[in-house]
Amino acid sequence: MKEQSLSSAEPLWRKNIELPQFDKLQQSVKTDVCIVGGGITGITTAYLLAKEGVKVTLIDADNILNGTTGHTTAKITEQHGLVYDELIKNLGKEVALNYYQAAKEANDFIKNTIQQQDISCGYEEQDAYLYTNDYYYVDKIENEFNAYNKLNINAELVDTLPIQIPIKKGLVMPGQAQFHPLKYLHFLLRDAINNGLEVYEHTVAMEVERNKHTTVITKDDHRITCNYVVSASHFPFHDSEGLYFTRMYAERSYVIAGKTDTKVKGMYINVESATRSVRSVTIDNEDYILIAGENHRAGQGKSSIGHYEELQAFAKTYFDVSHIAYRWSAQDLTTLDKLPYIGPITDGDPSILIATGYRKWGMTNGTLAAHVLASYIMKHENNRYRELLSPSRFKADPMVKKLFTVNANTAKEFIKGKFNFTGDTKVDELNQDEATITHNKGSRIGVYKDKQDNIYSVDTTCTHLGCEVNWNQEDRTWDCPCHGSRFNYTGEVIEGPAKQPLKKVSLDD
Ligand code: FES
């Protein structure tokens, strides 16, 4: 299948929705709280704080709601894959129970807010299913069910699904939900603005300076002086001494939305590889089925088109899909123990708060993060999830093993990149909208030719820690296989931890 047979890359959530636009920050400002990142974490935190009369300024490097939140599948559930059995075994029953309760409270907040404020955002209760079609995973599903029983989570084992996908075993958690994330967050944003929130788009936070006050310094050298900084930008834009790039890994995943006449009930995700996550959406009286999956380490693996084709084949096999109307991809981070990092960036730095590592369960974890971060800022001492989610936690087992695996993969990619020198196509044979790798005076150079025949060449050495970036044709980006930084074809950063652009080079040098 050729690329032309697929829809162009755009999330379904953008269909017929008008989001407000905001100016770039043009001057230095003072505020109580500076939030960096306009996704579910940033906007919900702003909503909670602005309601309490806190002066909040939110900045986003791009447009708001255009990062991972704008590319989600928007399931609202406490069923976060196979997690509770592992948490009980590795970290104990209390930790597992706390995580479940934290997730449930976050999801209840979403539900109650939608009901109380009468937000029209397609909120629907649905049962959530974990399933496997591989005998090897049947035990794992049964162990997860036993873990649910230990934690008093209402669930049932099943041998069939209400949809046509064959299974060996499934586990259903009733009373979960799905919604339209942008419609919901648009409401929270408007409410926060009515309570004094200021928003600036296309404003890139580069660094944090700490004197009497904390100051965020933007790429244009404007200063946002504040008492607290909230890094809600996915990868913390400021690492301090947290070394987060050694403690998380980035994965990309893919979503397609197929047009259907048969609305699917329930939300589904399998537990084996390759991942297949399923839910329905109705927008403007039209039904779609969302299929997500094909997760892989960012910057590694086959072309994006190949991943979409796999999802499309799955959709056509099991669902009544007339055509694929939308497709998009997203990147998310996983921590060493699978729990998000939410709280002060380091123990000695209470004015810089971070939220990251949601492991693709961003609707729940982003909402949870907003509550935990707001409790720090409001100095509410009674938030019982602080210790559970503290970014400074470290339990030797299994983190040491995972730390080794994450960084061994990074080292392998570092070395591989240095020897993987040239692309298949020579620069003077490049077609429009195509890229290749060449070398010049000992440097590995990435070259992209756009649709107007303009050539853009960059040194492919990632400005974070020196791994070699790879071309992503789907998004026209250079992606780093080590810690997930992404750069556009001109070399500008679109996703950290890198802060500096790729070095532009001239092929004539
Ligand atoms: Fe760390 Fe590229 S993101 S080396």
Automatic annotation (TrEMBL):
It comes from the Bacteria. Gene3D superfamilies: D-Amino Acid Oxidase, subunit A, domain 2 (3.30.9.10), FAD/NAD(P)-binding domain (3.50.50.60), Rieske [2Fe-2S] iron-sulphur domain (2.102.10.10). Keywords: 2Fe-2S, Disulfide bond, Iron, Iron-sulfur, Metal-binding. SUPFAM superfamilies: FAD/NAD(P)-binding domain, ISP domain. One of its GO terms (molecular function) is 2 iron, 2 sulfur cluster binding. InterPro entries: FAD-dep_OxRdtase (IPR006076), FAD/NAD-bd_sf (IPR036188), Rieske_2Fe-2S (IPR017941), Rieske_2Fe-2S_sf (IPR036922), Rieske_Fe-S_prot_C (IPR005805). GO terms for cellular component: cytoplasm; membrane. Residues 422-509 form the Rieske domain. PANTHER family: RIESKE 2FE-2S IRON-SULFUR PROTEIN YHFW-RELATED, SARCOSINE DEHYDROGENASE-RELATED. This is Rieske [2Fe-2S] iron-sulfur protein. It comes from Oceanobacillus iheyensis (strain DSM 14371 / CIP 107618 / JCM 11309 / KCTC 3954 / HTE831). The lineage of its organism: Bacteria, Bacillati, Bacillota, Bacilli, Bacillales.
